[in-house]
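Sequence in, structure out.
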Amino acid sequence: MFEIYARTEIGLIRPANEDHILVGRFIKNYGDMRIFFKNNDDFLYEHGLLLAVADGIGGELGGAIASSNALWTLEQLFYPAKKNGEIQRIQSTLIEAITQANVILLQKGAERPELARMGCTLAGICLTLQGFLVFNCGDSRVYRYRHPHLKLLTEDDTVTQNAVRNGKMTMAEARRSEQRHRLTNFLGYTHFSCKINEHLLLREQDIILICSDGLHDLLSDKEIEEILANKEISLPHMGQQLAKQAIKKGGYDNISLILIQLDNSEQKW
């Protein structure tokens, strides 16, 4: 069984939530949700399940429009396409949908001057019966918690990450740098590129975390790890605790997260 919990909230400082989350075919800008899928579900087999976070760029209006339009385009183009459970078709359909989302944002920005600089980050997974695909652009992230360690599955598209990769900055320096939010790639960018990793397998009790920088910028890997390691609390409680800790540490950005866990226990049904 796959259990999924998703949450998005405005935080303490921003006047509006520029984030949107996609859970299957649901797009949300407020609140939380929880769903379950059996691992032999026909929808999972035929289509795969999209789970994604988009963090808007371009101000209160433009950012929210960008993240909403990006996820709407992704959902609308991905699910109707026939894939017959083939991982190669799922991957190629996903690439086409994300690429078209970038085209849509560029077109809308060109049509409306007030939206000319809008864009959004994108991070997520496509869950299938053969494992999951990881995709991202910008600085929203995908992590995997496999007891007892948290592992980052994506690489930020930022000036500081490029400096780390080229040996010009340490990770600690990058985390403190004022340039850490300067993006080098995002949806709505003329030189956009999408990264999709080979499909990975989930083991029982693995937890996948997808989140915007409103979470990972405020919580260290160790703090995230400690919450996800607590087997005494439910998956929704873990998500609520993550958001609560980010709020407690300042909550200066919108906070969005999706948790996915593979669990063979029938106790939650």
